Amino acid sequence: MGTRQRRLRELAEREQRFLDAAREQITEHGLLSLHMAKVARACDYATGTLYQHFASKEDLLLAICADQAEERMAVMARAAQWQTGSRERMIALAVADMLFAIRHPDHFRLFQYASTEVIWHAASPSRRDNVLEAHRPLGDMVAQVVQDGLDSGDLPPQNMSPHAVALGPWALTEGMHNLVNAEGVLDFYALHDPYRLLLRHLHLQLNGMQWQPLFDPLDDVALTRQISHICASLFDDLCPEGTGHRYCSPTEDRTP
Amino acid sequence: MGTRQRRLRELAEREQRFLDAAREQITEHGLLSLHMAKVARACDYATGTLYQHFASKEDLLLAICADQAEERMAVMARAAQWQTGSRERMIALAVADMLFAIRHPDHFRLFQYASTEVIWHAASPSRRDNVLEAHRPLGDMVAQVVQDGLDSGDLPPQNMSPHAVALGPWALTEGMHNLVNAEGVLDFYALHDPYRLLLRHLHLQLNGMQWQPLFDPLDDVALTRQISHICASLFDDLCPEGTGHRYCSPTEDRTP
DNA sequence: CTCAGCTTATGAACCCCGTTCATACTCACC
DNA sequence: GGTGAGTATGAACGGGGTTCATAAGCTGAG
């Protein structure tokens, strides 16, 4: 029955248009100015129609999250793809996510906001599952890196499951994103270039897990080279329109 | 002029009563059910009066944060107080914060929610400064531990400022709290007792910074003993009414 | 005691949304 | 053409944050 299939396709297309419109509004005017009526109007629909797709505003927010997660994962996967050792791949994952957070601050803020208890529990359960499912690759990718390292003898066994080991770098990265995002904190402590700091700490952390060191984590030049190397493979993804973009710390512009 | 002073005192007292009422409502009915009208009514005031103290709902939320921060800091300070080495003090800070998050989940969720872009920027600037100021001890405590360690020769120099070094353990702890709070994530990866995992990773991280190890981070028994030791000095703070409370991982109850 | 002047409290009214629902429309199928 | 399931509409509803004109209380002076 071709009619039914067409219907479904149209439904999915419309949903995507709603999501895009919502995303655009967030990018343009901030999370605070996301209104259901405006999203519907932007797609030339009445407000009620929106509620055939999303049970509530929170539901819409989480839908956007699930939608954006795909892109986030893709960027990370691509960054890790070109690295050889387990350690390099782990670092690449963190750098990619960090770049994503820098380049798409609104999306990243949305991730934080939506994973808040208030929003999370106001959405429908199925939508929550969607978000979790969409984010599954994140944890799996990190754990896979550990697993591959163990298999190839690249890493020493830790008596911990790959996922448990993976939680360390993952938490460190998330936490640093948080601190960076919490405006004021970094200025408070006069910490410039927090993302380079993240990389340094990540290296130190891997050292602690006795992953063989590539170079001294305190070697600033080597660190920069590594970041640039990873970034080079990512800028097409992250800056489609940009030409000649290079790694530039978010605070670098501020210093005269 | 005694009148003026009395006025100010009354003002402060009333503000505190508002804050307490709001906190109670959050504890009782969750963040979603915090309504300005109800807070005012709980203190036998009209709604409008609330707006003489707090410019908006977000302002009130941030005020609660600043208020609660004091308690959070106090618990951490107390935990670190009884430890001798730099490494133990650093661990104690993390454990204390972790316990605070477990024992006061609502407060902790509020911290997360309020540091969200949406809430943060809807509050008044002076209130935001309040929150930052109230949280300053957090970063300073962590950095102080590093500084003391360096001064006493307890720690090797890292070519990094104490605050920069401190950001590592700090971010790791925050990040782990986040992941734990993001419901579903841990079940997804079958990770039980995430807080013990935090401790393990913290030890591994300190290893990486070449802080001399106390024991093998993978030694589960030693880890538990250390956690219990730190907790013992904290339960009076965290469970005023509780008698005979002991450390118990949040997931321990679930397993039959 | 009394009046002026300032501070604070009041709660009804305002307004902005998110959400719902009865109605009308569309269109594939008989 | 008739039928019914699916879909769109937009006015109306309701909750709740915010404001404001008014009233009440308090202080200090005369």
TrEMBL record, chains A, B:
InterPro entries (alphabetical): Homeodomain-like_sf, HTH-type_TetR-like_transc_reg, HTH_TetR, Tet_transcr_reg_TetR-rel_C_sf
Entries under PROSITE patterns matching the protein: HTH_TETR_2 (PS50977)
Name of this protein: TetR/AcrR family transcriptional regulator
HTH tetR-type domain mapped to chain residues: 12-72
Key words, A-Z: DNA-binding, Transcription, Transcription regulation
Entry-linked Pfam families: TetR_N (PF00440)
Residue ranges the UniProt entry marks as DNA-binding: 35-54
Taxonomic path: Bacteria, Pseudomonadati, Pseudomonadota, Gammaproteobacteria, Oceanospirillales
